[in-house]
Design a protein that fits this description.
Order of helices and strands: HEEHEHEEEHHHHHHHHHHH
Number of strands: 6
Strand content: 5-15%
Helix content: 40-55%
Number of helices: 14
Strand order of the largest sheet: 2-1-3-4-5-6
Number of domains: 2
Shape: elongated
Amino acid sequence: MPRSVLRIRDQGDLVAAVPAMLGFHPSESLVLMATGGASGRRIGLTLRVDLPPPEHPEYAEHAELVAASAVRGLLLDAPAGAICIVVSAAAGRPPDDLPHRWLAGRAAKELDRQSVPVHAAMWAEHTVGGARWACYDPCGCAGRVPDPAATAFVAAVVAEGRVVHADRAELLALVAPADAERIRRREEALIRATDGDVGDVGPVVVEARAGIAAVDAAITDAAAGRLDLADDRVLALATALGIGEVRTAAVQWCLGGRAAAAEQLWAALARETPDPESAEPAALLAVSALLRGDGALANVALDRAERAWAGHAFAGLVRRVAAAGMRPSAVRELLLDATAGGAR
């Protein structure tokens, strides 16, 4: 469908757009934005890496590695240009002594070496409204970040359903295991059920058709706002998602009209399912995130899956897709082709 073009007017608007692109407000981060499209100035891949502590005795070496790694990641998007933003507190520093100037310079040099022009290289103390920003360039441009909610770009992104979290810790909480006692109780019940002792939790799902029906019903409930994850339902869904045909159907739901409800279910199950079975919904959550272009959530979900089940094959496959830096449209095409043959 044709979509309206939203323009970012100046450097302050650009900083305000960063959390909408990442999904959270970064801190002590190097943020690189790729630009491309017909104009060469359409924002594309946006990535973030931690800044090395400036007091570290080997800061220069670490900063060089950080800059080189970030630029390699950005090149996956074949950028026509790039924007470099350092987000870092500058308490007690004079206005002309911007932090991490050397690192920003290294990133710019790496981009120039790859024939990628840098549209802007700038610093911001934060990405919230009222935070200070300034250019590293001699132009002397400086100002305050506008209220992100008041910018047309951020307002449009949020209206489309994108959630902007306060920080990365809030993003991690989306997949963090829930109440430890509840998880332990379910783990014990799952062990008993797989041994044939269903007790009071009901039988686990071992047949694909029943598993598809169980997941379908849960997505329907999520879409209607009435999702209830009692113990017996969590165990049924956990075992169902371990069946290949059910996982294929789950990937297809990520692609369909109920994708938002499916993503809600995967996130809830990643929190509520015992390990190692939680790897299945966590990997599916990563698929949903990649289809929306939310690389930060995809990586958080994949980290959760890999902690739950080291060597999980499906999570490993999704990790390779995420690492390839594919656009959401390419991920969608890949998944449509992969699921066209049913349970392949």
